[in-house]
Amino acid sequence: MTDSRLRRLRAELLSPAELDAAIAAHPIAFLPLGTLEFHGPHLPIGLDALNAHGVCLEAAAQCGGIVLPPVYQGVGGGHSDYPWTIMMREESGLSAYLEQTLAKLQSFGVHLAVVFTGHFAEQQLSM
Asked: What CATH number is associated with residue 46?
């Protein structure tokens, strides 16, 4: 994917007019989720969100829409005591963020929002 094509998908790099045009053409928004957690000494702690963001960018490249920046937050999975793991104890904070974000996206004309998580803890998946 070229840098210019990638730029047109990333919501944080677009102006309001560019966002309006992108949503008018394809009223889809992707919300990548992850967490900050230890995956071993050889991997970045943001791996879950980075993977989710990459998958969402590829999906948007295939079908249109915009991709919001990844949310580096999650719940569950039993890694909370590992080094450099930062996640929520309860899902209420992340749930509130998602509800507010989805409502705003709908008000902007988004007809389909795809919430995709790279953090596969059961608690997060069931949320």
From this structure: 3.40.50.10310
